[in-house]
């Protein structure tokens, strides 16, 4: 997302203005041609949402030319305005561009207070009129309100105003005291009041559901509150005898994937071409008049430091929510002069600080702490078994006594799973790396920093989990379509006496990732990827002949609602959300539209091919990979981030063996669904945490079922309970459903694509 200050000129004199804008022209603003060149430069590396702002953007005479050019180039354009200059003609022009949404700033529910805050009589009425004209023209409207002690008591009235005006979204902005906003420091909310306000947002959003979309802005710790509230709700449900959800539902996240986005998936461009992490963080990453936007985005020191969250200091650095919150870097900078310091308006105290385990205030101190010798390696198979042998009964007794005496949660609540003990740290580590493994120069230090361990201890634990077969591998999850491959689901009816041989044939196929035996006449199911230049029907027929199937079906996906297995192990406090299909983890389009660009450069191909391996367990694993390519590691990692942003790589993460984690049941639910119900039902099914995959698929004369969902649970009864709940909440007919349990896992791996 790019926020672009088209002009600093403004017709109002608002008390909170970050840029201290005034009326009149500002010198050296970007010309129309410079704006066009900037749009071309943005499109070169992505297709983010572009927010046209100011000042007041409607004061710029070439606004519609610039907006139109951006839309022509494939960008989604929205606009932020004070609303007072909108006429019927302007509203119609905005619709014609089209500007997808217009955000209008209203901070008080009455004309008297709004006019005083905005510095002009009639400002409230003019903004209200502007909103009405936009709605009449068919333009989506969003209400933005900057919250201080002056108006926090009017939050309910402001929300009611947004609802009555027909706004699709309400964004309370938590004041960052910059520009004229510094003059409001005496009426800024306290950290406790911030917390109360964000809890109010959560409660009202839950109450209102889909009537309006909330997004607290400049409030990254809302991500923590969402998860704490969801966990609290689950606990209460359990006490009432209900079933506990394993993680926060994606619907409660309102499609927000992370807190502070500055320099990660968001940047600000000033009226004179200065690029910053955000409009409130007054630190320059570069100027587009001096360097290309691509160079600034990819190479600036500021952005590199903001993207490496192991740089964050103080209690934010010790916080288990760091990777979903990050703390407001702008408030940290305004408060301390260091944008890597702790967020000053957060009352949360991380457990590591509470337990006295984390006393280091800087990354250097942490690095000194983690600078220990490498762990002993286990090279031979026999040595590997010895290194990971199970403790004796006496050892178990001693450990139990130690846990009771120490009160250390990392030693408590041990659960034996298939002869492998997982403590809370193991479970937290697995929760984290299933969702996202850090694409960082020292990823194990990043993980250790989050969990309060040395990098060597993280490596030791991952090595142990791999030896036990719990972690299959750590590597990229790639999007085959973007690599020039087509994928399909194949169902085969194989004679029982031929099943073992058929399983061996399919298992040896290099482009089969998953293969299961299932309890049905169609008893062998597998996924297949082949280049788009080949005939998939022909390939399926050939495989059918080789395995001597009686009937074989090609069931390609028509629409994907969800893709990505995630097995929540409980543990301590680390419960990250798995990115949904199409969402990038880093880059300009994080949490927004992924760049539709399938063209792979030579460097792209080289990096993708090199990434397709199990990550080495070394302090700097990406140095080893990039070194073989004779490529600078930072450039290699930057290219990896670009692959994420373009949707070529869905995520970089650990693949785990769900059976070894106790999720021994998996069932494929297949429904016959009327075409007009598929979209609604698929989207609803995708919100279930127990569902890893959900697709609409092509039907055949032998298979009339068009909606598929893969469920995972600890036993078959739980799988049935999940599908029963899905039917209840979607209105799908249980009598039009098949539930196919897997009787044997034949193959599960990540396909290696040759490009």
Describe this structure in words.
The protein is of the alpha/beta class and 755 residues long. It contains 26 helices and 23 strands. It has a ten-stranded mixed beta sheet. Strands 17-14-16-15-23-20-22-21-18 form a nine-stranded antiparallel beta sheet. β2, α2 and β3 form a beta-alpha-beta unit. The relative contact order is 0.08. Mean pLDDT is 83; it is low at 237-256, 356-418 and 572-596.
What secondary-structure arrangement, pairings included, does this model have?
Blueprint: E1 2-5, H1 32-45, E2 49-53, H2 63-72, E3 76-81, H3 88-96, E4 101-105, H4 111-118, H5 123-137, E5 140-147, H6 155-164, E6 169-174, H7 191-208, E7 213-214, H8 222-239, E8 267-269, E9 274-276, E10 286-287, H9 293-299, H10 301-307, H11 314-318, H12 329-336, H13 351-354, H14 363-369, H15 381-387, H16 393-406, E11 415-417, E12 420-422, H17 424-435, H18 443-451, H19 455-467, E13 471-478, E14 485-493, H20 499-508, E15 512-518, E16 524-531, H21 536-546, E17 551-555, E18 557-563, H22 602-611, H23 621-628, H24 633-645, E19 649-656, E20 665-671, H25 675-685, E21 691-697, E22 707-713, H26 716-730, E23 737-748
Parallel strand pairs: 1-2, 1-8, 2-3, 3-4, 4-5, 5-6, 6-7
Antiparallel strand pairs: 8-9, 9-10, 11-12, 13-19, 14-16, 14-17, 15-16, 15-23, 18-21, 20-22, 20-23, 21-22
